[in-house]
Design a protein that fits this description.
By secondary structure, the chain is mainly α. The protein has a domain of 142 residues: Tetracycline Repressor, domain 2. The chain contains eleven helices and no strands. It starts with 18 loop residues before the first helix and ends in a 5-residue tail after the last helix. The relative contact order is 0.10.
């Protein structure tokens, strides 16, 4: 008579705890945040989306706040760090090249992270959004300061329309990229002129930046 092997697990790391499961949990959290909102999303919602148990999420992240912080640190911060490094790495470039780089990077990020526009609208721009304070304190200030300073310098040198507000020109760049991307399902139904996607948003924004502003090359 054969002995039955015990399936009980001793204390310590779960046998199926892996980077793949943890990464899937982070992605599932993002999906839930975009669809439901951060404030109403529970660990149970995320566990169901990731096809794991709530206990496993507790093991990885502790609680809902710990999971949210992990999403911020491992999903959101790298996105904005990419933009920041690009802009800070162009201190002597012409404004036209800086604006083109901004548009290119935003559109590339949207292509790689389709969740970004919807999360921006829901959790940053909407009143009570869970990420608004984070955006104002950690993610956006340096990027905003660099762009606004470069725009103001071009105006001071007489190379840019003096009637433009440097602050609102930066906002306009966001309006040319993140906003239309967030509304793509609506625009695709509204305009019956073939497919509309991120590449179209990119081409339109670059045409305005490169020719509409009439900036020197």
């Amino acid at each position: 008579m054969s002995r039955k092997t015990s399936t009980r697990r001793g204390p310590g790391r779960p046998p199926d705890a892996s980077a793949d499961r943890r990464g899937r949990a982070l992605d599932a959290a993002l999906d839930c945040y975009v669809r439901r909102g951060i404030a109403v999303t529970t660990l149970r919602d995320i566990a169901a989306e990731a096809d794991v148990t709530p206990a496993l999420l507790h093991y990885y992240f502790g609680d809902a706040a710990g999971l949210q912080q992990a999403v911020i640190d491992e999903r959101l911060m790298p996105v904005f760090a990419d933009i920041r490094e690009t802009l800070l790495g162009m201190p002597d470039a012409a404004l036209r090249l800086v604006l083109v780089a901004f548009v290119e990077h935003i559109c590339a990020l949207i292509g790689r992270h389709p969740w970004l526009p919807a999360l921006w609208i829901r959790e940053v721009l909407s009143e009570g959004g869970a990420l608004r304070d984070l955006m104002l304190s950690r993610l956006a200030p340096e990027i905003s300061a660099v762009l606004v300073a470069r725009i103001a310098a071009e105006q001071a040198a007489g190379r840019l329309n003096q009637q433009l507000d440097p602050r609102l020109l930066m906002v306009s760049l966001v309006g040319l990229t993140l906003f239309p991307a967030a509304g793509l399902p609506i625009w695709q139904q509204l305009f019956d002129r073939g497919p509309l996607g991120v590449d179209d948003i990119r081409a339109h924004a670059l045409a305005l930046v490169e020719r509409g502003l009439e900036l020197p090359a």
